[in-house]
UniProtKB/TrEMBL annotation:
Residues 12-160 form the Glycosyltransferase 2-like domain. This is Glycosyl transferase family 2. GO terms for molecular function: transferase activity. It holds the Pfam family Glycos_transf_2. Signal peptide: none annotated.
Amino acid sequence: MSSNASAVRALIVVPAWNEQLTVGETVREIRDATPDLQVLVVSDGSTDHTALVARDAGALVLELPFNLGVGGAMRAGFRYAVRHGYDAVVQVDADGQHDPSEVPALLAKLGEADVVIGARFSDRSDEYRVRGPRRWAMVVLSKVLSMLAKTKLTDATSGFKATGGRALPVFAEHYPVEYLGDTIESLVIALRAGCTVTQVPARMRPRRGGNPSHRPIKSAIYLFRAGFALLLALIRRWDLPPATLPAPVEAPIKEGSSRE
């Protein structure tokens, strides 16, 4: 891990809903790739053994009483991080699509921005391919958000993100829970609050479980919903105070951990 990344006290948050088949391997891979970082799995109202499997793999687990969606799970993770004195949060999905070996690159870039996106379709070859309406939506959304951020963004819908600096307390209070809010709307919130956003290249791997749908009808629905989500985010009135750095925490709350 680079010196910049290792100097940051970061928490890796894994939102998980009924991911008992994949979350254990994901947690173990994260701990192998980033042994100095703590992993928090937010079990989002899971009705299977997600929480148990995550604990057995070495993660802290926060269990929500009912399903809130990725945005709600991540807001809980951000609040946990702020209350426990972490400097940064990295979101890693439970299904294995995000490569934990790329976490240090995201954290290293936090010295230059408040939010760092692990972006597909960037400066290097990527085996992950998206075609048709879904890809068109990603291109349009990224172009609009690039104009807002005043920097090139190629993957506005990526869930692989590092958050720190001024954005961490903003997300702890205002992280959106609506559909696509955890990606598109969260970036609009950060930018409206005066935070900075950038990206680093990242790979997207096949899911360990389940089959993502790329059928034409569902892709067209995605295109419509993504555009509508961006429109709402842009016209919505946000009562956001100017983003400031979080206050220092003298002694983080100690909680049980299975890390040895």
